[in-house]
Design a protein that fits this description.
Strand content of chain A: 15-25%
Largest sheet of chain B: 3 strands, antiparallel
CATH class of the largest domain in chain A: Alpha Beta
Distance between the termini of chain A: 31 Å
Number of strands of chain A: 14
Largest interface: A-B, 12 and 7 residues
Structural class of chain B: alpha+beta
Number of helices of chain A: 12
Radius of gyration of chain B: 12 Å
Oligomer: heterodimer
Radius of gyration of chain A: 20 Å
CATH topology of the largest domain in chain A: Rossmann fold
Structural class of chain A: alpha+beta
Helix content of chain A: 25-40%
Shape of chain B: globular
Number of domains of chain A: 3
Order of helices and strands of chain A: HEHEEHEHHHEHEEHEEEEHEEHHEH
Number of domains of chain B: 1
Number of strands of chain B: 3
Helix content of chain B: 40-55%
Largest sheet of chain A: 6 strands, antiparallel
Order of helices and strands of chain B: EEEHHH
CATH architecture of the largest domain in chain A: 3-Layer(aba) Sandwich
Strand order of the largest sheet of chain B: 1-2-3
Number of helices of chain B: 3
Chain lengths: 351, 86
């Protein structure tokens, strides 16, 4: 496919919740716009009416609400078919962990109606699931903090006896808290179980430097792109609010080892803690681009653009260089929108 | 031992370690010494330059140099544990 073919693409993107725990959608769109130019048409796919990306008219041409993942694949396919009839989508980039299962299941059907995706398999998705992460590390030689799966407050007691304090308490899909005593651990357990369901996971706390790696696997055991970033400013939710690209062969080797072990297909993020002995612990593996993905484009490796090209059949060479010392500093911004726009997306599911 | 090869320094004393993401602010003196270290000057050469340029005793300079190396080590900016004095 030539550059001209890329210039008229219509791409659907989820994860427009650019809030204090941001989805990656707006950053993905920014990278795509930079790589594909003004001819790109972006269709936002939203779950809630207050996702800020819906109202970013310079980023998103039109937004449609889509059913929550719990409504299943049939409802999602019906909605995507409706959107496709109107917009002629070429490609969809899902950006939420919780929706990926449905999109992966639907990928063959979507391809039949002309919508491409570039996603991992269900098996790959499950390998790195928080529930399976420790076993995955044991089998493949990665350092993963010890963990426990929690289904009751009795399980919390057993876990803290083994892991000690502080301990990290994590939701099945999102959110994590550091608990310094039993009461805080139980409170976090109850809150996370209520929000994200069971199991809740407790993980051994590793002290060190937080590093994230954004990477793009080709599905054959190789990475096309790897960009490590050190968190410089971390919010109370543990999210990077500022970060800087760094160069370290050990981090690149770690991502390559992961791609080789899993044959990962698509974007992913390794959340790393480097301890005082320089050991690299994988705290989490996110099966999608991170919210800071635009930094990869800014540093010279536009991963969302590369993803689109690979999905459309182009064979890409691996990026070999990026600029270390490139910072991102996130900020919040009050968008002002007319209530009519809010009403339209709320009532009609389109804006 | 030497300053790690990828360490970026600027004229105003800003130091960035691209391997770790650490950054530091140094004064004009730090900037001058770092530049000399990056150029491959030995400890003896750097000390000689400082003795010629500033009013400082050898004893004081040696003490300050030890402090300087400790700071560089703590900041993880050196290739190994000591700066080569040869």
């Amino acid at each position: 496919m030539t550059a001209n073919n890329y210039s008229q693409l219509c791409i659907g993107v989820t994860g427009l919740n650019a809030n204090d725990n941001p989805g990656p959608g707006v950053a993905v769109i920014r990278a795509l716009k930079e790589g594909l130019g003004a001819g790109l048409r972006v269709i936002g796919l939203s779950y809630e009416s207050l996702e800020p990306g819906i109202y970013m008219r310079d980023m998103v041409d039109k937004t449609y609400t889509i059913p929550y993942p719990t409504e299943g694949t049939a409802a999602l396919f019906e909605r995507l078919t409706y959107i496709h009839d109107k917009e002629k989508l070429n490609f969809i980039i899902p950006n939420f962990d919780a929706e990926l299962h449905n999109f992966i299941k639907l990928a063959p059907q979507l391809q039949q109606i002309g919508i491409r995706t570039f996603l991992p398999s269900i098996e790959q998705l499950m390998l790195r699931d928080k529930v399976n992460l420790y076993d995955f590390g044991q089998k493949n030689g990665f350092h993963i903090p010890a963990d426990h799966k929690l289904y009751s407050t009795d399980d919390v007691q057993k876990a803290i006896e083994e892991l000690g304090f502080p301990v990290v308490v994590k939701g099945k899909f999102y959110e994590a808290y550091i608990a310094h005593n039993k009461e805080a651990a139980i409170k976090a357990f109850n809150q996370l179980a209520l929000t994200w369901g069971y199991p809740v996971i407790t993980q051994q706390y590793i002290k060190g430097t937080e590093i994230n790696i954004a990477a793009l696997g080709d599905g054959d055991g190789n990475n096309i792109s790897i960009v490590p970033m050190r968190k410089l400013y971390i919010t109370d939710k543990g999210k990077a609010w500022a970060g800087v690209t760094i160069e370290d062969a050990a981090l690149i080797a770690l991502a390559d080892k992961f791609a080789k072990a899993t044959k990962w297909r698509g974007g992913y993020e390794l959340e790393i803690m480097r301890d005082a002995d320089d050991q690299l612990f994988i705290l989490e593996i996110n099966p999608r681009f991170p919210a800071w993905i635009y930094l990869t484009a800014a540093a010279g490796q536009n991963q969302p653009l590369a993803l689109v090209k690979m999905a459309l059949g182009e064979k890409l060479s691996r990026f070999e260089e990026y600029q270390a010392g490139k910072l991102f500093i996130r900020h919040s911004w009050d968008q002002v929108v007319d209530i009519a726009d809010f009403q339209r997306i709320s009532a009609l599911g389109e804006l | 031992m030497k300053l790690k090869k990828n360490i970026a320094t600027s004229e105003n004393g800003f130091i960035f370690n691209p391997a770790t993401g650490d950054s530091f602010s140094g004064n004009a003196m730090a900037s001058e010494i770092l530049l000399a270290m990056k150029n491959g000057d030995t400890e003896a050469q750097i000390k000689q330059q400082l003795l010629q340029k500033y009013e400082v005793s050898t004893t004081q300079l040696d003490r300050d140099w030890e402090d300087w190396i400790v700071q560089l080590k703590e900041a993880n900016l050196l290739e190994a544990t000591t700066y080569d004095s040869k």
